[in-house]
Amino acid sequence: MKIIKIVKGDLLDQKVDVIVNAWNRNIIPWWLLLPQGISGAIKRYGGYEPFRELARLGSIPLGGAVHTSAGKLPFHGIIHVAGINLLWFATEKSIRQSVRSALLLATEKNYHSIAFPLIGAGTGGFSQQKTLNIINNESELSTFDGEIIIVQYEKKSNQPQKNIAK
Questions:
Q1: Whole-number pLDDT of residue 38
Q2: Would you say 54 and 63 are in contact if contact means Cβ atoms under 8 Å apart?
Q3: Strand intervals (E) in the chain
Q4: Region for residue 125 given its phi and psi (left: phi exceeds 0; alpha: psi -120 to 50; beta: otherwise)
Q5: Domains, in order of start, for the chain
Q6: Nearest to 18 by CA among 94, 100, 63, 74
Q7: In a 10 Å sphere around its CB, with 0-12 CB exposed, 13-18 middle and 19+ buried, how is residue 107 labelled?
Q8: What is the pTM of this model?
């Protein structure tokens, strides 16, 4: 049974099988990019292994998705989506296709729960509210039969250092 939830919080705090990393086309080597947003948090708490795997997979078509391990994070995997174009902008089309691709991959990998950030709303410059609406709409249209959590990032005040370990 499909369940869609919209929550405020941190993507890495979600109790799901797999998380989505709003990535890029994977053309620029990951080690040249400054860690920001979700990718930065994954690198800090999960280590570099998911990004090493990502580098071996090559470029990702705009709106595409690829799967890696979760490194030291407590998830079964990470689905990286190319939600921004080469000019570092997101579009409605790239966000919609990223969500479709991620949910299809989650279905293929037999995951039962997935958490999405607001793809394209950070570096991609897309409106948070529009992004939320697009992800929610694509989730409703999807054949993914599990829990879908859409996370609106909200830093907790006095947030302690994460202690994430498998």
A1: 86
A2: no
A3: 3-9, 18-23, 65-68, 77-82, 113-116, 147-153
A4: left
A5: 3-153 (3.40.220.10)
A6: 74
A7: middle
A8: 0.89
Q: What are the tokens at 109?
A: 């990998």
Please say whether the beta carbons of 95 and 60 come within 8 A: no
Which is nearest to 83 in space by CA: 121, 55, 46? 121
Distance CA 131, CA 133 (A): 5
For residue 99, give the nearest of 29, 20, 8 by alpha carbon. Answer: 20
Average pLDDT value for the chain: 88
Q: Helices 128-141 and 92-108 sit at what angle, rounded to 10 degrees?
A: 40
pLDDT tens across 18-32, in order? 999 988 766 665 555
Residue given tokens 């400054």 in the structure block: 34
Residue 41 half-sphere exposure, CB side, CA atoms within 13 Å? 20
Distance CA 99, CA 20 (A): 9
